[in-house]
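Quick note —
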Amino acid sequence: MLGEKHKSFFPPSANCTLWRYIDFTKFLSLLENRCLFFSRVDQFDDPYEGALSRAGVEFLRNQIASVGGANETVDYFINVIDSMRQQVFINCWFMSEHESAAMWKLYLQSPEGVAIRTDHDTLAATLDRSPLKVRTTMVKYVDYDKVPIPPDNAFFPFVYKRLNFAHETELRAIIWSNEDINKTQVHDGAMGVTIDVESEEFIKSVHVSPNATKWFGQLVEQVLRRYNLSIPVVRSSLYDRPSY
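Predicted structure written out below.
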């Protein structure tokens, strides 16, 4: 479980604030189904998800060649990593003590959206109750043309991302379906995995988009009352005029 140390993962050394920016339909789905959704990696937009860096492949080829190995060995390893894209499932969070103007714009298609605020300790405690093995890690951002992703563990390609995405300061929770030995939680061909959560324990506050109208904030409050949840609702003041 989360308490186990693993060299391929880099959880925060201290508790930190986490945000998840979602539209209203996904927010309703979370409340109704009481679960977090983990998407299969090959469904992500970034084609480099779960891929070795160019510098890493060159390093690996040189290492194999130095001991008289064949390129087929490297190709085999690349194919193994690529196949894991259909076996690894990820749930993503934004790490910051403050809400982000960039994240509001990046993850919402309209003003009708919210940001769920929690923290790493709470997330970890929630995931640790799952029958699945779930690990959390901060994402490491590197130049894929210059920095080799360590080739000695198949998890590393799912922990590293290109520098182009460094603005996301992402923390991700990761599930590998092969660790569900009896296939009771992750079925073959699954496009996603869900982890049960108790919303009132898990969500510290719900922040309404700074561009949302007043009625939308009131709707968010009404929905939480409908589900008997005493979770604070905060209207973002990101774009309010300053007052002195």
